[in-house]
Amino acid sequence: MAAKKTDGGTGGEDVYPGIQAERVQHLNDHDEPTGPDDADGRYVLYWMQQSARASFNHALEFAIHRANDLELPLLVAFGLMDDYPDANARHYRFLLEGLADVEAELGKRDIAFVLQKGEPAAVAERLAKDAALVVVDRGYLRHQRQWREDVASSVGCAVVQVESDVVVPVELVSDHAEHAARTIRPKITQHLDRFLVPLRATRLQNTTKPRVSGEDLSDLDALLGSLTIDHSVPPVPLFTGGTTEGLKVLRAFLKNRFSTYEKNRNQPQTDDVSHMSKYLHYGQLSPVQIALEIKKHSGSNADAYLEELIVRRELPMNFVFYEKRYDSYAAIPDWAKKTLNEHKADERKNAYTRSQLEKAQTHDEYWNAAMREMVHTGYMHNYMRMYWGKKIIEWSSSPETAFRTTLYLNNKYFLDGRDANSFANVSWLFGTHDRGWTERPVLGKVRWMSAGGLESKAKPKEYVEKVDRLVEQVEAESED
User: Fold this and answer.
1) CA–CA distance, 190 with 194 (Å, rounded to integer)
2) Residue 204 and residue 71: Cα distance in Å, rounded?
3) Considering only CA atoms, which of 15, 58, 52 is closest in space to residue 241?
4) Which positions of the chain have pLDDT values less than 50?
5) Cβ burial 111-124 (10 Å sphere, 16+ → b, else e)
6) Which one, of 432, 416, 411, 337, lies nearest residue 382 by Cα?
């Protein structure tokens, strides 16, 4: 069923203070209750599945307003499945740390939270049986959209989706897949004054706690161990999940590294980056909140950061929303497929199997360092991510094999893998959102990167030394 705007307003209006009407969509044809007299249910349910935070969350605040309108309690729920696509213990630990933070912070606001095991849509459907209204946040990936469609079509009450993980809603920006940052930039920036605004926390009036059983988040090791998941990729000690921790990381960045952000953001031997991508991926921080913090600073550092946070992040959201094959080689542009196919039979000076790549067993010390950073820390400096991916194309037996290998490694080891940005960035390696360049062996006209080019623009030997120190740190902390 096609989503439609809620009756709360049309373009240019707010449904509630700070919640723009364009963020809000009805997902089914059931009427929303208008007041206590037609509220048939014990509570309002906020099915929190993407925006996993208790603050600066448009879906949560909308749900609180609606609960107050209906004089009902609010129940916030999360469905935890064992087999989330491509996820492992590394991802689950970061997620659970964030959900423990959600439970604690919602508790401070007298709002009930429950974590239940099960396929997320099934959890929502079960809890919706006693709900007068279901509010859900928004996810853009294929399975996330399907979950919401399944719930909307099966429950007996209105389901309202509230966008809270992009600055400007995707459909408002464009009605088609954009070609590049240059085409989407003006379409986003014309709306920023309207959407880059604070969101006030609203007090829940009926604080009665619905009696619903769930999982215990006080012992994350036990909960993680109870899940039937891939435990071969361990959690990393360098990063802790949750809004509270994410805000600490953001403040440390602004205090200690922001002044050199523009100068050093493409210098992998430094650490002048924000580390926000992982917190954004799990919905633990709002992009609007981060942008408002950045806007307190003026100058080129702020401009460069906002370009990355808003334009470069929301171009991938546009990509996965309008391109059904976003996780497939078939999605890359025709010109890129053509030139890669023309060079498919070119001799590979160096060739490696997926296993050799995963073990960082190549002749290239810079690439090996990048792979080691990824495996041991769940992170890789963005400039090295580009080099890392380009070399996989160069060293693989075919571009199709390279695509599968890159996506596999990306999703398995990165904390922020399996994200719209991940799928778009992997596709970018093969020509998406890019243009043709000088023709070369193997890659054809697809952009090429070399070790020599890396050395001319950065200090990769220092990067290798940095990775060595990080790996030692991770191994030491893991032993503790």
Assistant:
1) 9
2) 9
3) 52
4) 1-10
5) bbbbbbeebbbbbb
6) 416
pLDDT digits (tens, 9 = 90+) for 31-87: 999 999 999 999 999 999 999 999 999 999 999 999 999 999 999 999 999 989 899
Count, residues in the chain: 480
Q: Where in the chain is the domain with CATH 1.10.579.10?
A: 329-475
Contact partners, residue 30, CB within 8 Å, separation at least 6: 155, 156, 157, 158, 159
β-strand partners of 440: 444
Tell me which residue has tokens 């999940």: 241
Cα 349 versus chain centre, distance? 36
As annotated, the residues of the chain forming the CATH 3.40.50.620 domain(s) are: 4-165
Which tokens hold the place of 393?
């194309």
Q: Would you state the pLDDT for residue 11?
A: 58
Which residues are 47's β-sheet partners? 77, 136
Q: Domain 329-475: give its CATH architecture.
A: Orthogonal Bundle (1.10)
Fold of domain 4-165: Rossmann fold (3.40.50)
Q: Does domain 166-200+241-322 have CATH number 3.40.50.150?
A: no
* Residue 353 in tokens: 């199997």
DSSP 326: T
Q: Is 365 exposed, middle or buried (0-12, 13-18, 19+ CB in 10 A)?
A: middle
Nearest to 435 by CA among 239, 243, 179, 238: 179
